[in-house]
């Protein structure tokens, strides 16, 4: 039995993965929408967003339009890029969830 078998995530966000295409010596990065993801988010003093979710989000992926349960945008209309990923382990050394760090993304979707 998982100690955190039932956990409620306060927010949801749009999850975007990336594809890198290389033609000759030119490389381009494009993002595509995967779906919505349930998460818990908090902003650190350093300006990084700390995200907790059930599934890991690959480094370089994007989270956009983070909304609360009423559908209101939080943290304005910012787009966040995942910069760090670590598992959350319980007392029995099994993975309960994942903690990610994210920074503001400066590109276009």
Question: Would you summarize the structure shown here?
Answer:
The protein is built from no helices and six strands. The chain has 109 residues and is mainly β.
What does the model show?
The chain has 109 residues and is mainly beta. It has one domain. Strands 1-2-3-6-5-4 form a six-stranded antiparallel beta barrel. Helix content is 0%, strand content 58%. It contains no helices and six strands.
Q: What labels would you give this structure?
A:
109 residues; mainly beta; 6-stranded antiparallel beta barrel; 6 strands; 0% helix; 58% strand
Describe how the helices and strands are arranged.
Layout: E1 11-23, E2 26-43, E3 49-53, E4 62-67, E5 79-89, E6 95-104
Antiparallel strand pairs: 1-2, 1-4, 2-3, 3-6, 4-5, 5-6
Oligomeric form: single chain
Q: If strands are numbered along the chain, what order do they take across the biggest sheet?
A: 1-2-3-6-5-4
Number of domains: 1
Annotation, overall tally of beta strands: 6
Over all CA atoms, what is the radius of gyration? 15 Å
Low-confidence runs of at least 5 consecutive residues: none
- Quickly count the helices: 0
């Amino acid at each position: 039995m998982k100690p955190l078998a039932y956990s409620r995530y306060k927010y949801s966000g749009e999850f975007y993965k990336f594809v890198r295409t290389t033609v000759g010596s030119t490389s381009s990065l494009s993002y595509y929408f995967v779906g919505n993801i349930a998460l818990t988010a908090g902003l650190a003093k350093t300006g990084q967003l700390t995200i907790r979710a059930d599934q890991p989000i690959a480094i370089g992926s994007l989270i956009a339009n983070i909304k609360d349960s009423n559908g209101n945008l939080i943290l304005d209309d910012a787009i966040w890029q995942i910069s760090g990923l670590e598992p959350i382990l319980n007392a029995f050394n099994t993975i309960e969830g994942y903690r990610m760090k994210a920074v503001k993304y400066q590109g276009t979707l």
